[in-house]
Structures are given as C-alpha cells and as structure tokens.
Amino acid sequence: MRFKNILQSRYGGLLLFSLIFITLSFLIRTILLIGDFQNTDPGLIHIFQIYLYGLFYDLVTISYFIIPFVFYLLIVPDRIFSSKIHKWISYVFFIITIGILVFSGIGEWFFWEEFSVRYNFIAVDYLVYTHEVISNIRESYPMPIIILGMLLLSASIFALVKKHFDKSINSESRFVSRLKLSLILWLIPLLAFYSVNKSTAEIMDNTYSNELAHNGIYQIFSAFRNNELDYKAFYKTIDNKEAFSHLRQLLKTSNSEFVSDDVFDITRQITYTGENKHYNVMLITVESLSASFFTRFGNTNNITPNLDSIALQSLFFTNFYATGTRTVRGMEALTLSLPPTPGFSIVKRPHNENMFTLGNVLKSKGYANNFIYAGNGYFDNMNYFFGNSGYDIIDHKDFSSDEITFENAWGVCDEDLFAKATQVADSLYKKGQPFHNFIMTTSNHRPYTYPEGRIDIPSHSGRNGAVKYTDYAIAKFFREAKKHPWFENTIFVVVADHCASSAGKTSLPIKKYHIPLIVYAPAIITPGENTTLASQIDFAPTILGLLNMDYKSKFFGKDILLDQPNRALLGTYQKIGLLQHNQLTLQVPTKRTEAFQVDNLEQQTTKLNQEELRDAITYYQTASYLFHNKLYNFTEE
After folding, report:
1. CB-facing half-sphere around the CA of 93: CA atoms within 13 A
2. DSSP letter (8 states) at residue 609
3. Which CA distances in Å does 525 have to 475, 519, 520, 532, 537?
4. Which of 193, 225, 257 is the last residue of a domain?
5. 219 with 247, same domain?
6. Residue 32 domain-assigned (yes or no)
7. Burial of 275: CB neighbours in 10 Å, binned 0-12, 13-18, 19+
8. What is the DSSP secondary-structure string of 99-116?
9. Which positions are annotated as active-site residues?
10. Are residues 564 and 526 part of one domain?
11. Which Gene3D superfamilies does this one have (predicted)?
C-alpha cells in the first residue's frame, strides 16, 4: 500500500502520529546533542549512529504506543467512524496525544538538564511520588509559561496536519483489509518485546551518545519492565559453590572467623580487643555532596568552607566512593553493607524486611536507632525499609508547626532537620540509652531553596548556593551539639548519598562516584587523612570497629582502619562494576564485560583481567543469591 493510500485510509491518523513522533524525537535529540556536544564524539560516523539508532528506538516506541489505537481502528464500523460526533472525539484524542508527545519532549529536556540521561528509574519514581515531584517542578521552573508554550505548540502541530487527518476519518474500509494491516502492526511490537532492549543498539564507547540515541518514552516503559534484573539471565556467572568459596576468601579479615563450615553461610564472628565503647553515632547523609565540591579536591568556589575546616579536625577518607547514583542506593550501602544488585535498590523492593543492617546490629546491642528525614518518608519506600530494619521513624509528620522555619517540596530545611535530631538525642541521653541517628538531608536538591540571610548566595540560584547552605547548617549543628552533654561521647559522620551528577563519557565514570567521608569526634578520634580505596559498603563495619564492638557479621564491607578493602563496588541499575588495582571491571547486560584502566579518576579502555572479573562476578552473584534466598536476614545472637 502506497504512502498516499495509507494517509487517506482510516490508518492515516496513525501515520500522521508516527511522523509527528519521529519529528519531535529528532528535534529533542538534536537539542540535547547541541547542549552536550562537548561530551560526545563529534565524528560524522558517531553522529550518524546517534540518529540511526535513535530512529530505530523511535519506531519501536511507536509500535508499542499505537497498540490500543490499532485495536480501536479495527473494530469500529464505518458508519460510526465517519460520523460527525466521532470526528470531534477523534480531534480531541489526537490533540491530547500530540500534547503528550510535546509534554514528554519538554520533560526530557528538563530531565536531561538535571541528570544528563534519558528517562530511567528516576522518572518512574517521579510518576509514583507525584506530590513531591510536582511541587519540586513548580518551585524550580516557570510552569505557566511552559504550559502555555506546550499548548500553543500542540495546537500548531494539529493545525498543520488537520487537512490530512480529516481525509483519514472520512475514508471507508473493509474489516478483512483492516484485520490484515492490524495483525502486521501488532506483530511488530510483539517481536520487539522479545528481541529489543536498551542494549540492542548501543554506541559502545560513549555513554552520552548512547543516551541521545535512545527514546525517552521507550526508556520509561523499559524501567517499569526491568525494575529488577535477574543476575543469572543478564550477567556472567560461575558455579554458586565456587562463588561462595571465593567470597569467603575475599571477606576474611584479621579479626573474623566463619561460624559455619557451610560454604553458603558467610556469617563471621567479629572480635575486637578491649571493651565496647558505647559511643553514640550521628550519621549525616548529605544529599548530592560530591567530593569535587571540596577545596581538598580542587574546588575554588569556596562553597564548603566549614566542611573544609571540619575535615582537618576529623578522620577524612579521601578515596571513598558511592555505590550508586540515587539516595536509596546510598542508604542501602550504608545500612546493609551489600553490593548494589541490578535493578531497583533493595530499599524499594518487596521482601526487604528484617535484613542484616547496621540498625539491627546496634539494636541488638541496646542502641536506639532513628531514621530522621526532612520530608515524607513514604517516598522511595524509605519508612518501610528503615521501620523494618531496626530503626524508629521521624519524618515530616513529626515536626510541629513551630519547629518548621522553612520548607520546600522535599521537606524542612537542613537547620530544622538538625534541630530535630538534637532534640531526639537529648531525649535519648536523658534515658541513658546509646543512640544511632541516621539523618538524611534534602536542602542540596532542586529547587535549591533555603532560608535567606544565612550565606552570601541567594536562595533558588543554583547548586552552589544549596551546597554552601548545607555546609552552613552542618557547622551550625556541630556548634550547637558542643553545648550538649552527649557531644563528647558521640561519633559524627558526614557522608554523601551520591554525587551531584552521574553522567560521563564512559559507562561508569569513576569521578562521578567520588564522595567525602568525614568522621568527626574531637574527644575520641585523632584527626588525619585516610587514602584507602573504599566505598559506602565499608561504612558500617568501620563504625562498629570504632565502637570496638564484637558482633556476628554478614556484611560485605570491611573495617577500613583494620583491614584495608582496597576496592570499591559501584553501579547503575544495569551496569555493575568493581574498582580494584587501578582497574574498573564492568558487567553489562547481556553477559557483556568492559574494563578500564583508572588513573587519577580518569579512565581508558584496557584489556580485561580474568582475576578481576572473577572477583566482580563473585561479589555481585553472591549478593543477589543471598537476597533472593533470604540468607541476608538478621538473626538475634
């Protein structure tokens, strides 16, 4: 059937929609490419690949998008299809559909500006947690102007194609002819469902280019579909018994003994000489605190003056890495000491109750644990996870009106959050109970708003101001804490949940995972700088080491101060890596591997080392096995 004949048939509306879809996708891809051109390979072949692969994913997305419309066009008889009422109903639906495409395109531009990627798991979260997200968007962008522009653009597009759309509505057709074409149009998405995924057409050597080549709408549905990736199906494996036998070697430390000969049981008895110290632990997990914000790592904007000073009075870990690019990934690593298994964070998954967490270990030793959050902890399933991991929950609902001086879409400002943490600490101190507070800040998050008059950068002016305000609030918290009787017996920790940006030219840009870890306790810990390569999974064992606490452990992490880990585990929801011996070994669906030589946070492609790959497979395969077989749960001693 010729193009003109299809355009004038009742399926002409689908053809018009497809052309509009491809055109808008081409425009948004071009706009994003121009905005990030310096991060892509400017070669003509590379640019050609971006648009060719982009067209491929656009067509696949269209095939999914039109499934219900094809069904509708098949069953509606001609007398209804060509009626005046149906004509106006079709106008409305066609304009709405165009509006969805325009809205998606505008949304992708803002999403790229924030994360430098197409829609992904984060966008899925944005669809689920509408209150926080809509409030954040309203506070961050001039929405009335954006909506007006979107409506005008949608109306203009419809006006351009209305003449052709009318011809398709006034056409006549036989059911048998419609059935043949409908079956063909259904066969395409069916084949795509079983044969196409995010990795089907990839530009191997540049992550920015890969993201540009993808289609945002396809990506968001792919994220829904792949919220958890089966390790065996998507990644290289070895025999489970071999993996656990090797894991035991990797986890063995100078002060640990395995409690069982069962190779699948990684429980160890951890022993320290001397008495348990019973120090309090105040963990301040800072939203998006990249190491690159610090003067120590070359920043010249003076946006962390207080933390720069505090670091000099602390035990400062300068070769420390986040395990992921989301807050829940940081929470997962800091509490579970477990590698980042592919898919959604365990914090968000079902069956995550009573796992082996720092909270449960401390609770068994008589500690009171609190998860203290500035916003609504139902977001990202945080309250459920922490509430079933040995922590009591304190979030926005627990702040009285007189305790809130400023708030935005994500919750109360950091000053108010720290004031609440101080109040909680006072209460527990009066009870004579040691405590661990997991404090999660939010002020360093778009829309970057905070109380005026605190720092020399106006609120709502960008990331630098938000970082500097958080720096100010932490220093204020420490000054206030010094006035309280529990201060000298408390270990304060400042660590990031993840970096401010995760995008880079390579699959896992190491520099976008580099974060600070500051352990501040003037009466307890001698200041110094520790350069051991480690990551967030090493936090819990290191803190328990500072407490001199004997305990049974299933943690994958190590006490950095006793047995240097000299490795970091990090990933995205699909790509998982092991940084070790200046080499990043990467596993990618489906069962592919990459390797990079790392020098001063810069990386270049190198030959895969089989021993490094074996270590990487061991860490991730066993972590997945333990979670899915409920072998990483907490059992009272």
Report:
1. 15
2. P
3. 18, 8, 7, 17, 21
4. 225
5. no
6. yes
7. exposed
8. HHHHHHHHHHHHHHHHHS
9. 327
10. yes
11. 3.30.1120.80, Alkaline Phosphatase, subunit A
